[in-house]
Amino acid sequence: MATNGEVAAAFEELAVLSEILGANVFKVNAFRKAARAVEALASTATEMDLAALKEIDGLGASTAAKVIEFGKTATMTELEELRAQVPPGLKEVLAIQGIGPKTARALWTEAGVVDLATLKTAIESGAVAKLPRMGAKTIENMKESIAFAESARGRIRIGEAMPLAESIVAELGKLAFVSKIAYAGSLRRGRETIGDIDVLASSTDPAQLMDAFCKRDEVARVLVHGDTKSSVLTKSGVQVDLRVVPLDRFGAALMYFTGSKEHNIVLRERAIGQGMRLNEYGLFKADANGVVAEGAMPIAAATEEAVYAALGLDWIPPTMREDRGESAAFAKGAKHPELITVADIKAELHSHTTASDGSMSIDELIDRARARGFHTIAITDHSKSQFQANGLDEARLREHIKAIHAARARHPDMQVWAGSEVDILGDGSLDYSDDLLAELDWVVASPHAALKQEPKVATERLLKAIAHPLVHVIGHPTGRIVNGRPGLEPAMNEIYAAARQHGTALEINSHNMRLDLRDSHVRAAVDAGCMLAIDCDVHGPGDFDEIRYGVLTAQRGWLPRASCINCMDAAALEGWRKRKR
Ligand code: DGT
Ligand code: CA
Ligand code: CA
Ligand code: ZN
Fold first, then answer.
1. Which residue has the least CA distance to atom 17 on ligand 1?
2. How is 23-47 classified by DSSP, letter by letter?
């Protein structure tokens, strides 16, 4: 059964492809609208009949029929036709920051660009500069983005790796001859980018398991097909390794292949210091010369807990296995840090409705927040400078505040705040007057433009926003995009000190493309005594699910619950909000 996300993605691709092919704007918009409509649907689109689909706001006769077709064939005839007309390499051109479908079309039809390589040639030859609206600055930006994209290639975002690994583990795990299966490596440690996906399994029929793995739909090429290890490359260019290990050694193998390498080294040295040897087969007793007897049975190997315990340690969460002090913090008897989990998050404090660039109404957003078990939702649409995101001018914001406050009566069980994600302008001033900001319950201030400032200028800019008495949270403080753009590089120590001094929280934006603050920032901010927010920057219903990536990042930064405003109970959070009102 196709999910609404898959149907919406198909419509979005239809929109992009038809725009590249020069279709009229009504047609392009119809596809975009259909994508939004399906994405926002509470029930599964492909389970509905044609009549019901046509009733949905945003779907017409033709798009509704496409939903039906997608339900039956997992694709759309028109989509396949358009795909066949557009050079496949244009996808990577579109992935460059600042190149949308319109620009891609111009590059393709007027400068012969069909992929990244031809784009680079066309820039060098001056062909791109001859196109309309291609100033020297735009081209310079394009060149930087290309260089950045090339350097980042090879590591994929966790948001791409996780669903892939989870489907492999879930589906292979159902096979009768698979007794245990889990993903390991950097993915299990929750890193923001993943080099390759490592999967471990125990099986009563390893050969059959390897066959099943190598024959999966997403596999483009089998790199290695062995009895204990196979490696494949997926169609999207991701390498996945599967290793089969004995069931009674699964814990030791999982520890070894989860890493990090640095963490493993610390553990191995610890083992040696205690007269033992640790490897992927287990923890073994060594003799006076440090030698393990041939064929010796391990002291511990079946579970991670057993191996850690035999080393005198409590089980260390994978997100903390980076040799950043965890072996001391988790020594038996030490009071070790407790990690935040998704279940601890009780509020979403950065969200968008249809008033700016979100896909949900105020009521739907509140309903979805309640369904997550949250007690508080802050509605923070974009401010006026974000015109491309339909940012609200003063008059519209005042109307929006009224509408949000009116919604409270319909949702007395929820704490609903009228807020704004107000732009931090290039000079650190905010996009609305203080008078208007004071009318809001909640203010997230975020940098969106001018993200290539000198570090000194960027520092001053953020410090000004942090010190503003009406600002509660700094949203995605650096503006970086994972594998996309580096963002601001302010003097972070000054940022943490000011945030602590002014009681302004710093956000971990959970979206897997942002993860901003990143893990190392979180750790330093916690050490500096800051409060942090973990938010999803919700634009559509699916965005609530991004919280897992924000929580993994928080764990990697050793963020305690007490330092996270989203973990407060409703009254405490309200009290925290009011300090700035
Ligand atoms: P990645 O794939 O680059 O995102 O990072 P990892 O951490 O997944 O690294 P990967 O796939 O090369 O290896 C998986 C784990 O296996 C790694 O985290 C630790 C373990 N490992 C691999 N090679 C070595 C090694 O030479 N020494 C030790 N101690 N552990 C290793
Ligand atoms: Ca890996
Ligand atoms: Ca690997
Ligand atoms: Zn936002």
1. 259
2. --HHHHHHHHHHHHHHHH-SS-GGG
